[in-house]
Request: fold
Amino acid sequence: MKSINIEDLHDQARRTLPRLVYDYLAGGALDERTLKTNRDAFQQWQFCPRRLVDLRHIDISAPILGEAAAFPAVVAPTGLNALFWPEGDLALARAAAHSHIPFTLSTASSLPLEHIAQHAGGRLWYQLYVIEPVLAQSLVERAKNTGYECLVVTTDVVVNGKRERDMRNQFALPVRWRPSLIWDGMRRPGWSWRYLKHGLPVLGNFNTPEAKTKTARAALLSRAMDASFDWEALDRIRQQWPGRMLVKGVLHPEDIRHCQAMGMDGVVLSNHGGRQLDDSRTALDVLTELPPMPGFEILMDGGIRRGSDIAKAVALGASAVMIGRAALYGLASSGQVGVQQALDILQDEYRNALIQLGCPSSAQLGRQYLHRNTPSPSLPVIHPSLETL
Ligand SMILES: Cc1cc2nc3c(=O)[nH]c(=O)nc-3n(C[C@H](O)[C@H](O)[C@H](O)COP(=O)(O)O)c2cc1C
Reply:
């Protein structure tokens, strides 16, 4: 049956992937409260549509870091994409290029960053994890030499969040065929057939001398980041990288201001899709508290499953959203075709929301189209002007 929304693609991904892989994709940290709150945050806002507006010309495009995108979205960096579909990184990048939105390649990609630069097309951003300083330096250099447009430095994974689904499933890197995976794989023949043919994924960016030093190998094996990574170290990367640069994973207003002061082009407000510190604030909530910051772009992510979610984020001041699991559900269900379906669904729903709002363009979308719900009072409140009737 054709998927008509992201939840349909999610269902399909659940049916297609072995349990261990599905849980890695869909799960969050600890009690998964942030995973849920990320979605709930959107429900706190309702639309206030305007009527009788001339809507013959609708322009849903939006500038992201100075260049027009077809709609205000970017494909988020996600690691181990080949677990969901062989050459998953390429499938995501190509679908993003086809949709005219940027794609962000993760440090933990399955294909090397040079391969993506050569074969994907479109606007390419590179996401950096600082696992070890020398290794980080060499990854930045490689991204620079291959022409990535923007460097996205992720700051919210000093250690991995405690993901209990992964612990129960004994999810570990490198992923190997173990009895539980073989058993589960037998019930997911499509997935297993693809992996018998293509092999299980590897980390594609670490086949260099810098990744083979003793310290780098130890850091990679422990799956922990460089614990000494701080503002000064970030500034050194800023000096090394001549292009656009965003800091991902910040939520505190002072951190956001610090990023602006040190010459970043913007931030991605994010709690890592609820996969890191459970009970973190949602990016949407932080967004509502920020003053306008001209010349400094605020992107956000977490829980984007509807085009109307994108409309709310943009109305609250985001220049774009990052799309994480929504694109991965598409990828897991049918590769590049599925990612394309996910992006088309979100784009169509976003356009539909704008038209129904009576808002002719992304540029005109603002807070005046939203109303924040207050908790329902126990007794019905009668508007003062109606009391005299
Ligand atoms: C399977 C998976 C892998 C991820 N890997 C990375 C990564 O390598 N680097 C990174 O910065 N964020 C990573 N993230 C976080 C996403 O970039 C993004 O912040 C998050 O998925 C947004 O929430 P959403 O999935 O609810 O849209 C990952 C998320 C998922 C679901």
In short: The pocket of flavin mononucleotide is lined by residues 25, 38, 76-79, 106, 108, 127, 154, 248, 270, 272-273, 275, 301-304, 322, 324-325 (CB under 6 Å). Confidence is low (pLDDT under 50) at residues 384-389.
